[in-house]
């Protein structure tokens, strides 16, 4: 393989050189696919039973509430306990939720409210699992391999986003919803086995007791880091206005006439584009201005969503635009995660990551809600196109409000990142300050 091609492909050094990271990553390959199957099965089930985009919006709201309520507290827990043990608990409980969905799919005429209850519980558990998982990565790899590890995580997630929805659509069409949920339940076994095989990840340095004081400390740190705030703001602009996932069932059934298979393909298309975006991300570590890269990537995302909304005459063209959007989104995610992880000390990383997770998980759900409501008033195509245009407007507002994002330059490499100078009005917390500091 030529050196130029090697530099273009994703850097696999963390998989080759970091044992526990490799195990965690491998377990998530399997369980992530199962999660993506359920991600499309739930809204499909609700839409088929109600034929209402507002019912799908209600499901989205039910999944959003526990994220808003529990995420910040979950970050304070992740900073205070062994993150490996916390992940074992959340993964086991999420598996039980998937088993409950199997039972509800098998029981004839099961009340839809019970599906909403399980979705609520699962979303709450995921709001605990995700900050613990993301904040563990800088502990499993050295700082110089953190960008590669983040890119590999995105590659993992996007591969699951391709295979999971595609398999999910086939499973729903062939063996039904119960079969789809069963596959998700079984997939958690891989994640649990991997977690049992890695070393504990106890807290480092100063440990804050979980609770309101710890949450306030994390929020105070975030408020004082305008650069971090800018990454949250631009992602919210992209997801709230430019995320049409809730409309996929209506588009597949009523516009394209492709049924469950079409839902799966539309859900998989962004993942396919993101997979190749992550696969060809070997160059990201060389980017010294990740903020500028975020702005470009989110702008491409918005333009691609506009194209998707205008391509109702051609299902293949619509899928192509979704794939382009996915490629832009994964690069935005990599650069935003680099900024957040490298800017945050380990003893605060769970709480800051919980805010990050709160943004990246609640934004799409708010976007689904917005898209569904607008679609119920003005139609699905108008909802998608207007959302993409509003995303572009939001990017402009964020760039104007947070000039730090475009101006941000990473310190030169030399092992650990250079020490950060405190921003005006910010008191640097005590304790380890470098990613992965021991």
Summarize the structure.
The chain contains 17 helices and no strands. With 438 residues, the chain is mainly alpha-helical.
Topology diagram in text:
Layout: H1 3-8, H2 13-17, H3 19-50, H4 53-80, H5 83-106, H6 112-140, H7 146-174, H8 176-197, H9 212-224, H10 226-242, H11 248-255, H12 259-279, H13 290-310, H14 315-342, H15 346-378, H16 380-401, H17 403-407
Helix pairs in contact: 3-4, 3-6, 3-7, 3-8, 4-6, 4-9, 4-15, 5-6, 5-8, 6-15, 7-8, 7-12, 7-14, 9-15, 10-13, 10-14, 10-15, 10-16, 11-12, 12-14, 13-14, 13-16, 15-16
Task: Summarize the structure in words.
There is one protein chain. The chain is an all-alpha fold and 438 residues long. 78% of the residues lie in helices and 0% in strands. The protein has 17 helices and no strands. It has helices at 3-8, 13-17, 19-50, 53-80, 83-106, 112-140, 146-174, 176-197, 212-224, 226-242, 248-255, 259-279, 290-310, 315-342, 346-378, 380-401, 403-407. The chain is globular. 55% of the residues are buried. The model is unreliable at 414-438 (pLDDT under 50).
């Amino acid at each position: 393989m030529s050196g130029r091609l090697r530099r273009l492909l994703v850097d696999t050094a963390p998989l080759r050189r970091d044992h526990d990271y490799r195990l965690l990553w491998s377990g998530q390959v399997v369980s992530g696919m199962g999660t993506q199957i359920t991600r499309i099965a739930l809204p499909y089930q609700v839409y088929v039973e109600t034929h209402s985009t507002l019912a799908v919006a209600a499901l989205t709201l039910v999944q959003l509430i526990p994220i808003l309520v529990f995420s910040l507290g979950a970050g304070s827990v992740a900073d205070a306990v062994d993150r490996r043990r916390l992940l074992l608990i959340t993964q086991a409980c999420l598996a039980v939720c998937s088993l409950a969905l199997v039972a509800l799919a098998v029981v004839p005429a099961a009340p839809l409210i019970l599906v909403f209850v399980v979705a609520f519980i699962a979303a709450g558990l995921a709001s605990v699992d995700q900050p613990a998982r993301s904040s563990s990565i800088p502990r499993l790899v050295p700082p110089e391999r953190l960008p590669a590890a983040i890119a590999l995580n995105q590659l993992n997630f996007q591969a699951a986003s391709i295979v999971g929805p595609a398999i999910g659509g086939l499973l729903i069409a062939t063996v039904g919803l119960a079969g789809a949920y069963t596959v998700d339940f079984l997939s958690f076994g891989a994640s649990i086995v991997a977690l049992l095989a890695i070393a504990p990840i106890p807290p480092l340095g100063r440990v804050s007791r979980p609770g309101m004081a710890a949450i306030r400390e994390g929020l105070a740190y975030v408020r004082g880091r305008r650069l971090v705030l800018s990454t949250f703001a631009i992602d919210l602009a992209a997801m709230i206005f430019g995320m049409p996932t809730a409309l996929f069932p209506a588009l597949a059934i009523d516009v394209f006439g492709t049924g469950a298979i079409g839902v799966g393909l539309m859900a998989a298309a962004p993942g396919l584009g993101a997979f190749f975006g992550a696969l060809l991300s070997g160059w990201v570590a060389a980017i010294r201005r990740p903020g500028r890269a975020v702005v470009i990537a989110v702008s491409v995302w918005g333009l691609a969503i506009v194209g998707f909304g205008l391509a109702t005459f051609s299902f293949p063209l619509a899928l192509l635009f979704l794939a382009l959007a996915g490629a832009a989104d994964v690069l935005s995610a990599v650069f935003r995660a680099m900024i957040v992880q490298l800017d945050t000390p380990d003893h605060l990383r769970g709480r800051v990551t919980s805010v990050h997770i709160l943004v990246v998980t609640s934004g799409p759900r708010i976007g689904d809600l917005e898209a569904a409501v607008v679609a119920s008033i003005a139609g699905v195509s108008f909802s998608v196109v207007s959302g993409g245009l509003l995303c572009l407007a939001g990017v402009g507002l964020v760039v104007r409000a947070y000039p730090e994002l475009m101006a941000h330059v990473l310190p030169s490499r030399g092992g650990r990142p250079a020490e950060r100078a405190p921003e005006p009005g910010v008191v640097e917390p005590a304790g380890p300050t470098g990613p992965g500091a021991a």
